[in-house]
Amino acid sequence: LARQALASAKERESPYEQGLAHLTLGRVVRLSGDLEQAILEFSSACELFERVNASKELAESLLALAAALLPVRYNRLLLKRTLGRLPEVVESIGYDSFLVKPAGEAPDVLRHAIARRIHADYYLDLARRSSAPVVGPMEEEIRESRSGFPVVEVTALGTLEVSIDGRKIESSEWESEKSRELLLLLLFRGRPLQRD
């Protein structure tokens, strides 16, 4: 039935309906155990919803994609990007009540995001509201890390990317190119430097 809906949506050239069909197909094939095909379907849904600015459906697709990616060990970068993108989409919408039930059905996804500190505060809040069994010692660990120094992540292969407590620092936020270079110098020098 979902494949027929997809074919019909393609005939009508409706990307929104195609996205809905891919999302439904992904859910069906995931239940049957075909994670590879589910990942392809959810990825297609995400691309289509992104193209037509269907943010709510995009958020649902991102959560479903993360749930399908988690058991697959080889695509951790896509999982990290997916988990990072979801709170951004939710912020643009302004609410996420529609994600509470699906999040409750995917406690491993929430646990993974919290443990990896990928927007941990957002996923902790979502876990609390969904009654997902992820709070406990992990919550205490996150709270302790928040009382100390912020978590800074730097990716220096290719384009420099810096995030503080899960929030990516945009290019426009850097005062100058020299400040980026100074950060890299301090991080990778290996020994203390003189002020000058």
List the helices and strands and how they pair.
Elements: H1 2-11, H2 15-31, H3 35-51, H4 55-69, H5 76-93, H6 100-104, H7 107-115, H8 120-130, H9 137-147, E1 152-155, E2 161-164, E3 167-168, H10 177-188
Antiparallel strand pairs: 1-2, 2-3
Helix pairs in contact: 1-2, 2-3, 2-4, 3-4, 4-5, 7-8
Helix-strand sequence: HHHHHHHHHEEEH
Q: Structural class, judged by helices and strands?
A: mainly alpha
End-to-end span in angstroms? 69 Å
Strand tally is: 3
Q: Averaging pLDDT over every residue, what do you get?
A: 82
- Using only C-alpha atoms, the radius of gyration works out to 20 Å
Tell me the β content.
5-15%
Short structural summary:
The chain is mainly alpha-helical and 196 residues long. The protein is 64% helix and 5% strand.
Give an account of the 3D structure.
This protein has 196 residues and is mainly alpha-helical. The chain is 64% helix and 5% strand. The chain has helices spanning 2-11, 15-31, 35-51, 55-69, 76-93, 100-104, 107-115, 120-130, 137-147, 177-188; strands at 152-155, 161-164, 167-168. A three-stranded antiparallel beta sheet has the order 1-2-3, with no helix packed on it. Strand 2 and strand 3 (167-168) form a beta hairpin. Helix 2 (15-31) packs antiparallel against helix 3, helix 2 (15-31) packs parallel to helix 4 (55-69) and helix 7 (107-115) runs antiparallel to helix 8 (120-130). The longest helix has 18 residues, at 76-93. The chain is elongated.
